[in-house]
Design goal:
Length: 153
């Protein structure tokens, strides 16, 4: 009985978000929308970008309120929070006997994060916003992180 009540509360809290996503992203698994798969991908990526912006903003506010530096908040909460869903998906497919899919999911998501998550904003900055400009990277840990990723590949 208590589990049913929690499911109802969860449904009530998530319904507005699910409704907005339902209205803005075509379901390409249905025959009617099969040809719109690229639009589904692009809109899903835009929604993820919006959610990521709010997540980073809230973590920054919480860190500032509690007196925790942005670097620590980013490494612990943001990095771990974005890796847990990939880890869960990899565990699920590995249990189904699809080990190669689990490994490709783990590596692929990080490669996508670096190439799209960093490459697209930097590309827009240097090609569309301020043509010919350079992007200054103010992070000592970025080279180390990219080296670890390339080493794991």
């Amino acid at each position: 009985p208590a589990d049913g009540k929690m499911n109802k509360v969860k449904w009530i809290l998530t319904w507005p978000l699910i409704f907005v996503l339902f209205c803005t992203i075509p379901n390409c698994s249905k025959p009617r929308w099969e040809r719109w798969f690229m639009l589904t991908f692009i809109l899903s990526t835009l929604w993820i970008a919006l959610f990521s912006y709010f997540m980073v903003w809230m973590v920054t506010v919480i860190g500032y309120t509690l007196g925790i530096p942005d670097v620590i908040m980013g490494i612990t909460f943001l990095a771990a929070g974005t890796s847990v869903p990939d880890c869960m998906a990899s565990l699920i497919v590995a249990r189904q006997g699809l080990g190669d899919m689990a490994v490709s999911n783990t590596i692929g998501s990080n490669v996508f994060d670096i190439l799209v998550g960093l490459g697209v904003p930097w590309g827009l900055q240097t090609m569309a916003i301020d043509y010919g400009s350079t992007v200054k990277i103010n992070s000592k840990g970025l080279v180390y992180s990219v080296a670890l990723l390339l080493g794991s590949v």
